[in-house]
Amino acid sequence: MTTVTSSDEAVLRPPALPHRWTRARVAGYFLVGLWLAFFIGLAIYLYGAWNIGLIETYGPKYWSGLKTTLTLVAISFLLGMIISIPVAIAGLSKNRFARRLSGGYVYFFRGTPLLAQVFLIYYGLGSFRPQLQDLGLWGFFRDAWSCAILAFTLNTAAYQAVILRGAIKSVSTGQWEAASALGLSKRVTFWKIILPQALIVALRPYGNELILLLKGSAIVAIITIYDLMGETRRAYAQTFDFQTYLWAAVIYFVIVELIRNLWDWIERRLTRHLIR
Amino acid sequence: MHIMKRFALAASAAIVVLTMGAIAMDTAQAADKLKLTIASEGAYPPFNTLSPDGKLEGFDIDIAKALCDQMKADCTFVTQDWDGAIPALQAGKFDAFIAVMSITPEREKQIDFTNKYMSTPPAVVAPKDTDIKGVTKEDLAGKTIGVQGATTFSNFSEKTYPDSSIKSYPTAEEYQLDLANGRLDAAVDDRVVIDNWLKTADGACCKIVGMPKADPAIFGPGMGIAIKKGRPELVKKFNDAIAAIRANGTYKKINDKYFDFDVYGD
């Protein structure tokens, strides 16, 4: 016992690496300089362009736009999460028909732009008004808000299904076998053993998807919803002041940063048992 | 200490980058030949629209071509989204923007305008079976009105019809779709653009219910060609050319190709 502690002092450290001006280091400083220049420029511009009248007029509008954006993203992300579970399970199923159905859905929504999907659901289905009225669905499709929720939900559900499917597959089959050896039913195994482990793997991709959806939501203004971007465009159209767009960028940036930090926190919390 | 040194290095790199950017911008702004790039929206028939093979055409484009001939300029045409037209012009992406842009005080703070090359009034359009009787604030209270965003018509509608719900669309084509399929009770736009649309099969749904009084504080003296600030010689060339084609009959020839009245106004 004493021998172990006493040898601690005598350990020889490797010599410090020489501090050379390698090409990579120069390039690194240059790039950091570039970013610094960008942020300093942005800060100087926003300071110089500070206009309290503008903030007083458009601040509340930005706030309402921000609430619209956040509500839209939150609702469609959660609805998408619910829809993605059966889609992912169908994608993993032994039944070929279920697999094809799930694959086709994912194929379509991942393969086309969100902009096109929003446009098709709002304007495209809108031109089938008589048929939709016969089916009693016009009340739903008349409203831009419900069309937006539908398009965003279907889109994010496709991405989330892929994330979930990959995560479930990443849990080793040994877990299934062990649970089966313990006499647990498939259902209990899935919900209590496989899914919790899969969700840890899926957490980061979910965060990415949420961030992408948030930024993707900026296109919703084309179907007349005044989200943060819609309010920004309106403010710009009335003032022609470029800082309206800069403020929108700053707000989106801050939200993304908040989500990122929230995700870091969730991950730390969920993986406590894995830290050695 | 070490961190301070790194920070100082990064900061000096920042200064180098900023200086290089400034030099690059200076050289880009030099040289001024009479080679012009003219942009238009291409979604506002009959003034500007895209032909089936994707070329710009319409009244605006014909006028611009006549002006180029008059100025002996070599012009190329590009399409530009309405929303981004003013920033793109300021960034020098093209020399002039011609797309029925009203000469308003807010816009004049950002860009310069030539004299007006046309001037047309606003109109309110609604489905044929509408119960809208007139175009006052009361007539349109509680109605949903469609407009193209970032236009004088959207500013006008928000100011004139505070009791209505104003929906703004990226181009005229989208509010026309929504008017046809019944999401909108009415729309406000240029009289000539609406007339042109009503003549098409899609426009068969609707009719003009009236012409609101054009508020000069919003609409300005008419529509001009937008040019980046600080190019008075180019503005003058355009103004001279507009006066010349008005005088020599070229304007009338183009006008008569599209309209049965003089869109120049009085």
From TrEMBL, chain A:
Q: Which UniProt keywords apply?
A: Cell inner membrane, Cell membrane, Membrane, Transmembrane, Transmembrane helix, Transport
Protein's cellular compartments:
Cell inner membrane; Cell membrane
Q: Which GO terms describe its biological process?
A: amino acid transport
- List, alphabetically, the InterPro entries matched: AA_ABC_transptr_permease_3TM, ArtM/GltK/GlnP/TcyL/YhdX-like, MetI-like, MetI-like_sf
Please name the GO terms that the record assigns under molecular function: transmembrane transporter activity
Chain segments annotated as transmembrane: 26-50, 70-92, 104-125, 145-164, 210-229, 244-263
One Pfam assignment: BPD_transp_1
Q: How does it sit in the membrane?
A: Multi-pass membrane protein
Q: What is its main location?
A: membrane
- Specify whether Transport is a keyword of the entry: yes
Q: Hey, which family's this protein in?
A: Belongs to the binding-protein-dependent transport system permease family. HisMQ subfamily.
What is the designated name of this protein?
A: Amino acid ABC transporter membrane protein 2 (PAAT family)
Species the sequence originates in: Phyllobacterium leguminum
TrEMBL record, chain B:
Under the heading PROSITE patterns, the entry gives: SBP_BACTERIAL_3 (PS01039)
Entry keyword set: Signal
Q: Does the keyword Signal apply?
A: yes
Leader sequence segment: 1-24
One Gene Ontology cellular component annotation?
membrane
Location comes to:
Cell envelope
PANTHER family with a match to the protein in the record? AMINO-ACID-BINDING PROTEIN YXEM-RELATED, MEMBRANE-BOUND LYTIC MUREIN TRANSGLYCOSYLASE F
Give the family from UniProt. Answer: Belongs to the bacterial solute-binding protein 3 family.
UniProt-recorded name of the protein:
Amino acid ABC transporter substrate-binding protein (PAAT family)
Q: Give the species this sequence originates from.
A: Phyllobacterium leguminum
